[in-house]
Amino acid sequence: MISFTRLLCGGEHYGDTLRYSADSRGQVHGTRAGAGPVVVWNATRTCNLKCIHCYYSADTRKFAGELTTAEAKEFIDDLAQFHVPVLLISGGEPLARPDIFELARYAVDQGLRVTFSTNGTLITPDVAREMKELGVSYVGISLDGVESNNDRFRGKAGAFREALRGIQRCRAVGQRVGLRFTINRHNYQDLPEILRLLEEEDIPRACFYHLVYSGRGSAMVDQDVSRQESRQAVDLLRSQVREYGRRGMDKELLTVDNHADGVYLYLREQAEDPQRAAMILELLRRNGGNRSGIAIASVDSEGNIHADQFTQNHSFGNIREESFSRVWTRADDPILAGLKDRKPLLKGRCAACRFLDLCNGNFRARAEAVTGDFWESDPACYLTDEEVRSA
């Protein structure tokens, strides 16, 4: 994640200690010294929607072989002992799992910071209240367009209104909540409307995801935005963050899954505000770029361990056979070991880029999806050849 608000306006924001603390850089097994990675747990593959970009290929049916309640609690115990800073519960739709609040409460009781990634359509007033009462730190609710555009994208008429009500219900009980939006060719034109929605609904935080070609999203390579559109989207978010700052509005905008964004912000500020650019450069150096396999991990609904939630085709073990912490620190799988020290393995533009120290090769799942080579250049990097080569 790249906090445009932190980079452009300063201040402290939720999650900044995981991204910009002085000891986060250089870690090989976690977010900082003495801590494991942020873990995304796909608690179930079942979902009440069928989004065209779903990296987990979730569906409305029930799936056999998912972790039992007892197995999930044993997994949570291991995460707590490994000092994992955040357990992000995702899906599928995590609220479709009957024991999800029992497990979330158990994780909170073990000292984990628990967050949810949900489509929001199942958040009733009682659900919002229960999340708040059990101590959920944050709820990210996905909207991938406005009204019918979102509904087409997510495969259900009325999904936009239901998700928006979910946000409203979280806000009503004081549950910390934000919006998630995956940028692609289907919804790129809705970005200004989404930004207006943030103000109209008083939503304090929004994460804008770059498309990753995984799961059903593998069929969307040709439906991603162009490099020029990526730059325009970042320019729009950059302008909006500055506007929030001028108006004294407490809103945070972040982008996810493309570390070219941080470099692009740095280059823009270098030309306009060198002092701010120097501060951005220091924060990007602390962050170290993409940290899949280092500070981010994923465990799927059947207990398989992955480098991140998008790299489902590479599994390093299963928590039913060996603890997550042991698999993660032993790192004897060549992909996992490679991710922990990837710079010598990268190819193409990534290998030659002068900003490799800030980006760390960006997203390997996209590179593999397009080229078939896990270590090739990320095709979603929109920096020009001149920008990556010239000092």
List the helices and strands and how they pair.
Layout: E1 2-3, H1 4-9, H2 16-20, E2 38-42, H3 69-81, E3 86-90, H4 100-109, E4 113-118, H5 125-134, E5 138-142, H6 148-154, H7 159-172, E6 177-183, H8 191-200, E7 205-210, H9 227-247, E8 252-256, H10 260-272, H11 274-287, E9 296-299, E10 305-306, H12 324-330, H13 334-340, H14 348-352, H15 356-359, H16 364-371, H17 385-389
Parallel strand pairs: 2-3, 2-9, 3-4, 4-5, 5-6, 6-7, 7-8
Antiparallel strand pairs: 1-8, 9-10
CATH architecture assignment name: Alpha-Beta Barrel
Strand content: 5-15%
Name of the CATH first level: Alpha Beta
CATH topology: TIM Barrel
User: Gap between N and C termini, in Å?
Assistant: 25 Å
What's the total helix number?
17
Main sheet: strand order: 1-8-7-6-5-4-3-2-9-10
Helix- and strand-based class?
alpha/beta
Walkthrough of the structure:
With 391 residues, this protein is α/β, with parallel strands linked by helices. It has a single domain, classed as Aldolase class I (TIM Barrel, Alpha-Beta Barrel), CATH 3.20.20.70. It has 17 helices and 10 strands. Helix 10 runs antiparallel to helix 11. The radius of gyration is 20 Å and the shape is globular. The model has no long low-confidence stretch (mean pLDDT 94).
Give a brief outline of the structure:
The protein is an alpha/beta fold and 391 residues long.
List keywords for this structure.
single chain; 10-stranded mixed beta sheet; alpha/beta; 391 residues; 41% helix; 10 strands; globular; 12% strand; TIM Barrel
